[in-house]
Amino acid sequence: MTIAVTGATGQLGRLVVDKLKRKVALEEIVALARDPAKAADLGVAVRVADYARPETLDAALAGVDVLLLISSSEIGQRVPQHLNVIEAAKRAGVKRIAYTSLLRADTSPLGLGEEHRRTEEALRASGIPCTVLRNGWYTENYTGSIPAALAAGAVIGAAGEGRIASATREDYADAAVAVLTDEGHAGHVYELAGDEAWTLADLAAEVSRQAGRDIPYRNMTEAEYAAALEAAGMPAAFAKLLADSDRGASEGGLFDDGRQLSALIGRPTTPLRDSVRAALAG
User: Fold this and answer.
1) Which contacts (CB < 8 Å, 24+ apart) does range 22-29 have?
2) How high does pLDDT run on average in the chain?
3) Statement: 3-135 belongs to CATH 1.10.10.10
4) pTM of the model
5) What pLDDT does 257 receive?
6) Contact (CB, 8 A) for 180 and 13
7) Domain edges within the chain
8) Could you give the CA distance from residue 237 to residue 192 in angstroms, rounded to a whole number?
């Protein structure tokens, strides 16, 4: 069986390829990347695959049995790019696709949900057996801003008291590998989230505890938060996206207590305290 992973040079893709290498023979893994030079260190076969260049995709997917379609990073372009991959997978005779979607994509209040909903619809229409991995938020989305919070003396956001059931990229990578290498997942939609839910105030309290100084949480409106991120140097479009996601979190969009992720990976998800410790260690 040949397993291919799109976006193999990204943060999640690299983890998935590395974990696959521990479970299946190297010759069964194909890393798909826009720039193959960046994948040279993965230790597996590498093929050029650019979501936005359909002419690269037929050769990339030739002989592939199971495909992990990691969602494109180009927000606003995801639907046509994903459709390019799905159509090429049909032509190549791919037997199953696993797709990294968004937690409760069908009802999510996050603006990000629309492109995932449309991709899921395209997968269902393709006739290819598929597994939908509706990933919740990466804990790293928040712990990555801890240095800035320490410098500013506060954690900022617009999530209010919304509970965030996050998990680490490694947790989600383990789930992807389980689905790619085990039978019985075709046709399933998994709502994947961390075992532990927390608010941004909880995050601030944990940072304070481990850093040994008071770092409060300062809640903002969505517009104020977007402006603050933009003032800190973030591109306006991305700042608006993060602010919208926080607003969605305040409406419950990043909370789930079904524990499907820990059930799928056979272990508890990574606790927030461990992620904060890793971030503080640098």
Assistant:
1) 23/177, 23/181, 24/181, 28/1, 28/2, 28/3, 29/2, 29/3, 29/4, 29/5
2) 97
3) no
4) 0.96
5) 97
6) no
7) 3-135, 155-161+195-258+266-281
8) 27
User: Is 155-161+195-258+266-281 CATH 3.90.25.10?
Assistant: yes
Average pLDDT over residues 210-236: 96
CA pair distance 56, 5, nearest whole angstrom? 15
pLDDT beyond 90 at 282:
no
Dist CA 241 CA 250 (whole Å): 14
Q: CA–CA separation, 40 vs 19, rounded Å?
A: 17
d(CA 186, CA 152): 47
Going by C-beta distance under 8 Å and a sequence separation of 6 or more, which residues neighbour residue 142? Answer: 164, 166, 200, 203
- Write phi, then psi, for 257 (nearest 5 degrees): -120, 25
DSSP readout, 80-140? HHHHHHHHHHHHHT--EEEEEEETTTTT--STTHHHHHHHHHHHHHH-S-EEEEEE--BTH
CA dist 147 and 23 (Å) reads 36
- Give the DSSP H or E segment for 16: helix 11-20
Phi-psi label, residue 108: left if phi above 0, alpha if psi -120 to 50, beta otherwise: beta
